[in-house]
Amino acid sequence: MAGKRRKKRKEKKRIIVLFTALLLVCSLMAAAVYFIDRFIEEKTYKLDYKEEVLEYANKYELDPVLVFSIMHCESGGDKEAVSIKGAKGLMQIMPETGEWIAHKLNIENYTEDMLLDQNINIEMGCWYLNFLKSRFDDVFVNYVAAYNAGHGKVESWLKDERYSKGGVLADIPYLETREYVVRVENAMEKYGEIYEAELDK
C-alpha cells in the first residue's frame, strides 16, 4: 500500500511540474506575441519628427495624436512623398494651398520645393488643421473631412440635408473622404494606445 501511495504522489508531482512548465511556456509565448505585435505597431505607427510635431501642435493648439494620425494617413511619414494630384510632403499639402498658407504665415521667398522641408510642411499642416477646426466649430468629422476634400466641398455638403444633420456630416458622399475619416480615427486610437505617455499634452 505504501508503495502505491508513493507512486501516486510521484505521479501527482510529475503532473504538477508538467502543468507548471506548460503554464510558463504559454506565458512566455503570450509575452512574445505581445512584444512582436507592439514592435510591428510601432513600425507602422511611427513617431518620426516628434520634436517638430509637438512644437507645432502646441503652437496651433492641436492634439499631437491628431497630427501624427493625419501624417500617418497622408504620407506614412515620408517627407519626400508626392501624390498623383501633386500634394507634397509629410502632411501632403497641395502647392496652391501651400502658397496660400505661406502668405498667411509670412514665409518669405516661398517656393513649392519648401513643401518637402519637414519643418515647413508640418507647420503648414498644423496651421491648416487649426484653421479648419475653427472654421467647422471643432466638429471632428467636419474638419478632418475638409482636410481631405477641401473646406469648400465640406461647406457645400453641410448645406445639403442629404449629407448633414444638425451641422454635422452624417453621410459623406465621397468614398475616399468617408474612408479617410475612418482611417484617421483608427490611427488616433492606435497612437493614443501606443504612445499615451509620450504624447500626453
Helix content: 55-70%
As a percent range, the share of strand residues is under 5%
| Gyration radius, rounded | 26 Å
Order of helices and strands: HHHHHHHEEHH
| Strand order across the largest sheet | 1-2
Number of domains: 2
Q: What best-fitting shape do the alpha-carbon axes yield?
A: elongated
Mean of residue pLDDT values: 86
Poorly predicted ranges: 28-43
Structure description:
- By secondary structure, the chain is mainly α.
- It folds into two domains: 1-44; 50-199, Orthogonal Bundle (Lysozyme).
- Helix content is 67%, strand content 2%.
- The chain contains nine helices and two strands.
- The chain has a two-stranded antiparallel ribbon.
- β1 (164-165) and β2 (168-169) form a beta hairpin.
- α2 runs parallel beside α5, α3 (64-75) packs across α8 and α6 (140-149) packs across α7 (151-158).
- It starts with a helix and ends with a helix.
- Mean pLDDT is 86; it is low at 28-43.
